[in-house]
């Protein structure tokens, strides 16, 4: 099969190929640091060889559990925040019908999400829609005490038990959590829930190829074996043994770091395929949480083209020249739509009659690239042969490997997230959580 590809040619007017290739030794050193496990955050490197270490027994267990939920449920709610839901949503949105929830003759449950916000209206409306539905819950939390998912699960668990009884509810609830400790592990053991383990050495934003992502993705009817196969192949293609010039992850990491050094502080991930919107959301967490430290880091943003050419396009074309774009391009769409002829031709589009819609989209993509490069925006291009589980698996691993390399090249620990805790401490203090009395007094003095 083909592989995804990377083209940096449209960035070379802003940084030279010589500058990028001058980083070969540093990039190779960072790859060696990853593979030798002797760098910062080395206790969170479980993702590095994760694809190739997933066993047949693990895949079968996930598929069997997914089939049980599929047989009992019209809706399955994935409860989680950050990496505990973004990877799932990225895959499900990319590979399902765009209007999936409107399909009457369903083969697979609708996947809904909770625990990724504290919106009262959202939770109320979710509970209202579930009232007359057969539903199940996949609760994803290492600790079981993260506020957003814990709050949502508390409500949904009660609702499910009230609807079908405690005994039946335990067959519709799956916990994905720590192997031995934490509130969710304790509850799952007490209640007899089916459980899967979040590996200690895999951080949330790198967890999509663990049961965290694979179980809800399988429930949605998507082939997780193809997803894993794509990741396995990209793991091989970005291995320490691959020369720098052939290693897409190393080239991407080196190029974006050279652009950053030249003053390009914002990376915009763009796509011309609407189903890839949540790939952008997943990518933003991966890079933002990994590199935004010590006063450093490229700011990750994302746009959907051509839609956002009519909103953000002006700023990208003519705004402050501190940005570069990475465009995900899809070579072959799944469907074929031909533009019809119109006798009146009032819209003036008969010159397009007989062409595929994708041909128009591709010319929009090329025209945008040329305009943005002319306007001072370096462009990198990642090409997917098609949007499939296999190529999404490749894309996930490519971005993960590049992120590890890029973070080390930047000089930060790509695998921690100390800044995430600041809002939690303030929130707990403001809510008078037991144990936060001193913090409560201190923060109230500021108000």
Your description of this structure?
There is one protein chain. The protein is an alpha/beta fold. 47% of the residues lie in helices and 12% in strands. The chain is built from 18 helices and ten strands. The protein has helices spanning 17-21, 24-36, 50-53, 56-72, 86-95, 120-130, 147-164, 166-169, 183-191, 211-219, 224-237, 248-261, 277-291, 313-318, 357-374, 389-410, 421-430, 437-446; strands at residues 5-7, 75-79, 110-114, 135-140, 173-177, 194-197, 266-271, 299-304, 323-330, 379-384. The strands form two sheets. A five-stranded mixed beta sheet has the order 1-10-9-7-8, sandwiched between helices. Strands 3-2-4-5-6 form a five-stranded parallel beta sheet, with helices on both faces. Strand 9 (323-330), helix 15 (357-374) and strand 10 form a beta-alpha-beta unit. It is globular, with a radius of gyration of 23 Å. The relative contact order is 0.16. The model has no long low-confidence stretch (mean pLDDT 95).
